[in-house]
Amino acid sequence: MNRRVDMDWMLKDLAESVPQTRHVVVLSSDGLCMARHATDQDTADRIAAIGSGLQSLSVAIAAEFEHSSGRMRMVVIEVDGGFMYLMAAGAGAHLAVLADEGVDAGLVGQCMRDLVARIGAHLTSPPRHDGSSV
What's a Pfam family this protein contains (predicted)? Predict the structure, then answer.
């Protein structure tokens, strides 16, 4: 996939500063991998598709809350073996992190928030028209 900006290097700090991090992926709301670090393309594409589904489900959940804006902030899923974190990272973009069991959950969340705050403008996926970015 051609990316507008090579963001992979931006994810390196998060991946290397949180022990037990396996994968770091930036995805568009519709499930396309925009950037990745320490993750092969096939795995990144699967994580992006999963993240898109989780983001969609979280919007449906938000609709059940009376005073909700309907936006997803963060989703955390714990399974045998580890965690998946998904955070809104800009208009139409999300940051996903997969980490092993025993990871410091607070550190993951803080590093994700810091990354989004530092480079949020770069973590934006404009709407596509006719299958291409504008």
Answer: Robl_LC7
pLDDT tens per residue across span 68-116:
888 888 999 999 999 999 999 988 899 999 999 999 999 999 999 999 9
Q: Map out the domains of the chain as residue ranges.
A: 8-124
Contact 31, 46 (CB under 8 A): no
In the chain the first and final C-alpha atoms are separated, in Å, by 15
Q: How far apart are CA 34 and CA 132, in angstroms?
A: 13
Task: Please name the helix (run of DSSP H) or strand (run of DSSP E) that holds residue 72, with its range, or none.
Answer: none
Find how far residue 26's CA is from the centre of its chain.
Answer: 5
pTM, to two decimals? 0.85
* Contact status, residue 123 vs residue 95, Cβ threshold 8 Å: yes
8-124: which CATH topology?
Beta-Lactamase (3.30.450)
Looking at residue 127, the DSSP 8-state letter turns out to be P
